[in-house]
Write a structure and sequence with these properties.
164 residues; globular; 7-stranded mixed sheet
């Protein structure tokens, strides 16, 4: 398994985010607080998400990425970009309706990017991870009716787990 790595930069109201490796709920848990802080503390209006070296994205990771587009819609009519280099990732994104919220491009379509900083992938407590997973799946469900149907049971289970 290739360890996950997340890097970012913010320049000219654009969030640049780069995900490399395999992402599961436990490795993505640091991403949600980071995204929330960016939208609270900066005036970003668009994003470029580089998934060229992403090998696996679980539904929690997808939901966090969806939250970026949903938050950006309130700030700008411009759709953010997702740069892919992996056919499986591109198919996954399309199957979840990401083309409604993002412009999907291949790695040849992106020019230069600013220097990246790393995000510490420390682990959240189990209760925090449950909240992150719930919110992420709610964002996926918000994207379209198909996702609402696919994730309704997952959302219900996560909510029950949190309520207990």
């Amino acid at each position: 398994m290739i360890p996950p790595r997340i890097q970012y930069a913010i320049e000219q109201k654009c969030l640049y985010l780069k995900l490399e490796g395999q992402f599961r709920c436990s490795s993505t848990s640091a991403l949600e607080p980071f995204v929330s802080a960016v939208f609270k503390d900066t005036a970003v209006e668009t994003a470029v998400i580089d998934l060229v070296h992403a090998l696996f994205l679980d539904s929690t990771t997808l939901g966090i990425l969806a939250s970026i587009a949903i938050k950006l819609r309130a700030r700008s009519p411009q759709k953010p970009l997702i740069v892919t280099g992996n056919e499986d990732i591109t198919v996954l994104l399309a199957s979840m309706g990401f083309e409604q919220y993002f412009v999907l491009v291949d790695e040849t379509a992106i020019g230069s990017v600013p220097a990246y900083c790393g995000i510490n992938l420390g682990r959240q407590a189990p209760a925090e991870m449950s909240h992150t997973a719930l919110e992420a799946h709610q964002h996926l469900a918000e994207m379209n009716a198909n996702n609402r149907e696919i994730f309704k049971d997952v959302i219900e289970l996560l909510q029950d787990d949190i309520d207990e």
